[in-house]
Amino acid sequence: MKILVINPGSTSTKVGIYEDLSEVIVENISIAAEELKKFNDLYDQTEMRLEQVLSFLKKNNLEPIDLDVIVSRGGMLPPVHTGAYVVDDNLCDIMRNRPAQLHASNLGALVAREISKKGNVPAYIYDAVSVDELSDLARLSGIKKYPRRSFSHALNTRAVAMRYCKDNGLDYYNSSIIVAHLGGGISLNFQKNGHLVDICSSDEAPYSTNRAGYLPIYSCITIAKEEGHIALQRYEDSTGGLISYLDTNDAREVEKMISNGDDYAKQIYEGMAYQIAKSIASLSVVDDGRVDGIILTGGMAHSKMLTDWVINKVSFIAPVSIYAGEFEMNALAAGGYRVMKGEEEADFLK
After folding, report:
1. Helix (H) and strand (E) counts in the chain
2. Ordered structural domains, the chain, with CATH
């Protein structure tokens, strides 16, 4: 089975070809800042992204008709369940005209739809960013008009949870797993019987390399008054976390500072681990203390210094495993493979 995987990011488009579950080739196609400046609107990039993928196929002696299935990262749709959705005209209309939020990943389904029409092959999205399976209790925010939303690294965290269960002889669909994705943004979730029943999204999770994470509400009010709401948004999106404290978003640079005796850098980096551990502990109550495993994943899970601090604080809850890096491309291919094999069903977005 030949699978095309598409994963658009803000400054690149990652594309891959898989034979069944085996990676054949994956390429990260960068987009220069000067190129991006040409587009006034996110969706104006669609044709450019499509040409990137078609050129990738041509370079690898493939045409759309040679594919068996296309799987794209799912973007910021209205709330959806875990798993696969059929990429059709209706889904693309919602993605383009009524998304929950603008994000580069929204372009994936639009590109997949065009290629699927050229080759007459099925296309799906899998584990979209907007997976929302919060329990009724988890959805309460404290203000009736503004319930909690569910945005997390669903694709990677579900993939590593499934892998963890397979590695440890557990049934994923009868397990309770906490996963912390440690990247440019940090998010955590509690996966119970295959569903993300509670989460800590990046705006209510620990600070990261460049995001402020959960800010005290009165601090938010002060920032909005003194610096404006745009500055507050930037702290949450790009200028908070390690950048704010240490003028770098590279955890490796922070570790160098620490090894050179910078006690302040050590305090800030350990503070991130402290907050990660607190968030894990807060999620441990979701299933009344039943936790079959805790997983640390994402790019910063490569940092032994950081993960050792976290493990020291939370290992009393459940065994802690590290699956460093991200496995989004493999997860997308595996999702499409299961749908095509009849092991999972794809839904239609209504």
Report:
1. 13, 11
2. 2-133+328-340 (3.30.420.40), 154-324 (3.30.420.40)
- Cβ partners under 8 Å of residue 72, min gap 6: 5, 6, 7, 8, 87, 108, 109, 111, 112, 123, 124, 125, 126, 332
Q: How far apart are CA 309 and CA 153, in angstroms?
A: 22
Q: Strands 69-73 and 2-8: what pairing?
A: parallel
Find out whether 197 and 286 touch, Cβ atoms under 8 Å.
yes
For 10-43, write each residue's pLDDT tens digit. 788 999 999 999 999 999 998 887 888 889 889 9
User: Distance (Å, rounded) from C-alpha 27 to C-alpha 16?
Assistant: 6
Beta bridge partners of 5: 16, 71
The rounded Cα 215 to chain-centroid distance in angstroms is 21
For residue 61, the tally of other CB atoms under 10 A from its CB is 7
**Mean pLDDT for the chain overall:** 95
**Cα torsion at 256, 257, 262, 268 (round to 10°)?**
-110
pLDDT in tens, 244-268: 999 999 999 999 999 999 999 999 9
Please check whether residue 68 is in contact with residue 2, taking contact to mean a CB–CB distance below 8 angstroms.
Answer: yes
Query: With contact defined as beta carbons under 8 Å apart, do 317 and 339 qualify?
Result: no
Decide: helix, strand or coil at residue 90.
helix
